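Supplementary Methods S3. Complex input for the NAP-bound model.
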Amino acid sequence: MASKSLRTAVITGANRGIGYYIAEGLAKVLPDFRIIITSRDKTRAEEAAAKIIANNPSAKDRILGFACDISDYATVTQLKDYIKENFGSIDILVNNAGVLSWEDLDAKDTEWVVTTNVLGTINITEELIPLLNPKGKIINLGSSAGSWGKFARVNKETCARLLDEKNTVEDLKSLANEFIKDVKEGNYAGKWCTQRSGYCFSKLMINIYSRNLSFRQDIKDKEIQVYSVCPGWCRTDMGGSDAKKSAEEGADTVVFLAGLLPFKVDEKYQGKFVRDREPAEWEFSPYPHDEPVYN
Ligand code: NAP
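Predicted complex, serialized as structure tokens:
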């Protein structure tokens, strides 16, 4: 077991894809950190940890694998208890785990995607916030698919409800559940108008959650940094083989924010959606369509 004097980073869904390279990158740039790689499967998490150590032997004893399914709250609690008992606190949480389906508003897929990407991410974050040290960092993997002007076309009234800066965690969770329910019941048209799949909605919600976290008093009091990151279109199981970037290139902005940016709130980035190491717009054209778009 690694020494208690190390600081701790947790990366969800880090057994493959972008998450793996975030872990490998952070192992290199943060030599005073232990890195907990989570995967839904303990063996896969441990295999990824062993691969990072094989590529970087100086990381021996500070890369650990732990099983955690972010949509299974019992395993999130197990992770929290494990950290509390063994290390006491964390300094970095990277919410990388995510799923995608392009099935156009298929009810089952929508529920799976929104439950994992929105409710799962919110739940693990809220569980681990009490363990985050002052000046810690929360980095959520968003996507440009969650930008208003791109795919996440939501009508005017829904825009206003989603964008409300006063939305609490409970409000965001209930909006996510409302979306799932409306898709299930065929009531999304004219209200949500999300173009293609719940994935765009889920990543839009990640941007909103990240922004709202940065407004929260408990986050301000502890001077915690919060970001949402678009890794770009990457060659992973999710992104497919035609994507422009490698998974390692996709990890770069997260490695930059988590590993290279000082542990001090930087207003340039705080609460922002970050792409290619720079804040990017996602709220542009907040009311893009007076008329609903259904396709
Ligand atoms: P990926 O190759 O499909 O890997 C996804 C990772 O998430 C895997 O480790 C997977 O673990 C894990 N995961 C899925 N469901 C989970 C759950 N319920 N609990 C815990 N872990 C879970 O995806 P990726 O392309 O690396 O994407 C990583 C993140 O970047 C995602 O949030 C994605 O939305 C975002 N992103 C990707 C792209 C892209 O082009 N690839 C673009 C924009 C944003 P298992 O092995 O157990 O399934």
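The CA atoms of residues 22 and 251 lie 5 Å apart. Residues 12-13, 15-19, 39-41, 44, 69-71, 96-100, 116, 120, 141, 143, 230-231, 233-234, 236-239, 243 surround NAP (CB under 6 Å).
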